[in-house]
Model the fold of this input.
Amino acid sequence: MKPSTYVRWMLRDSRGARGRMVYFTICLAVGVAAVVGTAALADGIDRGFDQESRAILGADLTVDAKRPLPAELDAALTTIDGLERSDTVETMSMVLVPGTKARSRLTRVFAVRGSYPLYGEIVTEPRGGLEAHLGPDTVVVEIDLLTALGIAVGDSVRVGTQMLRVAATATGGPQQTGFTSFLAPRLYVSQEAFARTGLLGFGSRVQYRALLRLPGPPTRERIDRLVERLEAAVPDAAYLDFDPYHQIGRGRRWIQRMEGFVGLAALLSLVIGGIGVALIVRAWIAGRTRAMAVMRALGVTPTQILVLSLGHTLLLALAGSAVGAVLGCLLPVAVRTWAPSLLPVEIVSVIPVGAVLRGVGLGVGLSLAFALPALSAIWRVSPARVLRSDADPLPPQRLVQVASAVFLVGAVFAAAVVQADQTRHAVWFTGGFVLLIGLLYLAARGLLAFARRVPRRRLSPYLVHGITALARPGAGTVGAVVALGLGTMVITGIALVETRLREAILANLPSTAPSVFLIDIQPAQREAVRAELEEVGAREIDEVPVVMARIAAIDGTSVAEIAQEEGRGGWSLTREQRLTWRKELTPDNEITAGALWSDPERKELSIEAGFAKRLGVDVGSRIEFDVQGVSVTLHVTSLRTVEWQSLSLNFFLVAEPGALQGAPALYLTSALVPEAQEQVLQDQLAAAVPNVTVLRVRAVLDQVMALLERIALGLRILGAFTVLAGLAILAGSVSASVLHRRREVALLKSLGVTRGGVVRLFLTEYGLCGALAGLVGGGGALLLAWTWLEHIADLDVSLPWLALPTAMLGTAILTAVCGLAANYRALRVRPREVLR
Amino acid sequence: MSAPILECRGVGKHLPSGGRDLTILEGIDLVVPRGDFVAILGPSGSGKSTLLGLMAGLDRPSSGSVLLEGRALEDLNEDALARMRRRRVGFVFQDFQLLGNLTARENVSLPLELTGVDQAWERAGDMLERVGLGARTHHYPSQLSGGEQQRVALARAFAPEPALLLADEPTGNLDAKTGRAALDLLVGLRESAGATLVLVTHDDQVAARAQRRVHLEAGRIVREDARA
Ligand SMILES: Nc1ncnc2c1ncn2[C@@H]1O[C@H](COP(=O)(O)OP(=O)(O)OP(=O)(O)O)[C@@H](O)[C@H]1O
Ligand SMILES: [Mg+2]
Done:
């Protein structure tokens, strides 16, 4: 047969199928929109993060060191065409206004060279940027410094040994990560002027940094390659810190963890849409068996009919996916327009080609996979139907049945792999899907068996007829129960996960989180600091010692050697580490391996599990530290997880008390200070212990809160999507049965059943279907929610069993109402229709 | 003389029914030479439709063999059977069996398009003209009367010029007058096309026009007679 004939027949075939096509499109479009929308949103957020991280760094990549950057690095950098570079030397220093009543303020002094920063902007007042205002004896400062010192632009301040004139104020600019970036105002100075201040000579903490910007698009791969190249170029590069933009960004980790979940939840909408598709195709094939029998009697082969029907399905799938893709693309736009605060960063708008391809691919693939088992019924249409309308269908072909089922499960799994961030999750997803369908199928068969055996006596005839109607041939009870159950599961499951997660997030938001950190307290100052804190009414005061150290060797192998190994350590190996010692861990720590301070013979170390993984160490490993020139060996005897959200003082590395005896330690204190007292505390500490830096983190805390609340809101939106998909299915599985309802109603009426009687009949039938689906689906939802919360989100939660009866009742009512609504027209049918 | 177009050799059809074996047809031996007009008669439930289905390969016999132009149908799979029907066999049914979502002309042109003949559309139009429905080509079956529908069905059956035509009580659903007209048309078309016709009916008057009459009763051929 010619392809053009196929096309012609296909078009003719779609006559009178408009309702079906609309429903097919809706089912699929909701799912595809969810997939495309979330993928586009995630993509946009990712790009937004990239942009934000570059602005935070002021560069694509920064290279830091505690000593001047080596000449080898400079040489390696000059070989790269088009690379932009800017340098800063940064130190903390007191800046003062000499006078009768000396005023001073701890300040971050930045000596800059080149056009700083390379991304983002420092806005000066008067205008012109840093370059216009920095001269041999001028500085540009942040307005906070002027206020703190009580001076204005044009006045002079003392920086180190030099008096320098304030030429302008500055706002904006890179905000380096780490605590020292907060609160201390910044002062910018040219490198020549800085050299004269003598601040370099004090042996104080100085940070040398090169900011780099690549020509062309700075993809993550290019940055990583650049880092490798630079590391290779500098001998003993271990003391260099590389910060690529894609490894920083507040909340990024959280979002990435959410993406896998969100992806699977979106897929769930699509799978549900797929079930809708399967139902429609089945109803369609069932409605066309007579026509197919005629066609076969006329000599059309079953294969040709299959090709025709597949082509039909494919067309509908493409149409539905296209509609869904368009809707999905609008999601980021809609979110940005109507709820910009929902997203942690400004989304970058591009047409999400990847997301669209993924959505359309999954949409078309899954609808074919879901249609296939239904389409395979075509093989069973007996041409003998043209002679006897009740001719038995041909025997099922086991191979075709098994193959189409296997194909379906395979397709769902493949889609899950695409959507999940871990194959493990895809396996769970597919397994859960198959399990639940199996359960629903069995439950539906059970219902049918019951319906056939329902006792006829002593029950109202309407009830009996309603129940037995479930078992009548072609009632589609099994399909409806499976679809309704899945819909219920998704809606209930998402609702459960969402509320639990929100509760967990909000509960984790610590009312006890500290609002100030006091850094670099010398042992002799501890008493004084504590006294000041108590005076301002601080609570939750926690003080820990901090020892700075570098890892020298792990299990006898030097760090330089380990750094060569693929995939191990990276930057975490060579950074200067902060260690503390503690006798007992705070409650936000949980031991996951080994036992705390369990070996009386050795000096022990407890490592945060994730960090241990990065280092490639485990319980039993031996780590040799270089503690400011002195070698100390510690044995790892426990691993632990930390709830960082609590924001309390936590360390990757905690040593046994006494293990670091004699090491030079400074103290770090955190406390919750009433907001109104924070300024008082800061002023008093500045007078009493001027070397102590006060960090006020209330702003950070607020940011974290805001982020978590946004995540909770995002979950809500996603939930809405799946609810929509579930409702589409619900409406669809009900309306799939509506077609042959008209004749039935007409017949019942001609037999004398009143309209009210028909309503009662339908209520019984739909209500039973809904209740059963609600029960199994609700159970599945509890299982799903529990699995996800317990194993993926790592939250300890108790599940509300009340959800089960709620789901059951809710689904029963909703199904009954939908059923009646869908049959509204059929209910009004006149009995004479039975004659036609 | 060439091989008979259709041959049944000991054809039987049994169906398992409630544990027992239900015999619908038993030991049917029948040879239909090319160009013949054979009528199959018998009371309701005697197995006439079943036999016709077996002859067309719509159904498979439980025993025996049906040969169409010398080829045993049981050796063919569903696709091959369909291809066979498409080229060699035309059908007319008691309840017309038109495709409801196709117009009259589309119904007629479908088998032509299937075999890939040239100008299927034009030939379908001509065919409808011949059965007197030239003005109704764009109507859907639901817009046509029973007699008109049966004429469309006749046009569809004859359009591909099949060698064998099978008709199962083509007038059963029509009133006497319309039925007679449809039958005249059928017989006339057959004669001008020179096709073989096997016609199931329980109307003796109709059967009288056939060259041979085969009488079925309870699944067996009880009598065969030829026109004088
Ligand atoms: N698939 C089937 N299942 C059960 N019984 C069947 C089946 N097919 C045919 N029969 C039975 O076989 C017998 C013959 O049926 P068939 O349709 O061939 O009769 P017929 O001679 O065409 O009758 P009529 O003149 O009423 O059309 C009938 O008793 C019928 O009930
Ligand atoms: Mg019959």
Remarks:
- Residues B 48-49 surround magnesium ion (ligand 2) (CB under 6 Å).
- Chain B touches chain A at residues 49-50, 52-53, 56, 58-59, 78-79, 82-87, 89, 91, 93, 97-102, 106, 110-111, 113-116, 156, 168 (CB under 8 Å).
- The CA atoms of residues 99 and 107 of chain B lie 7 Å apart.
- Chain B has seven helices and ten strands.
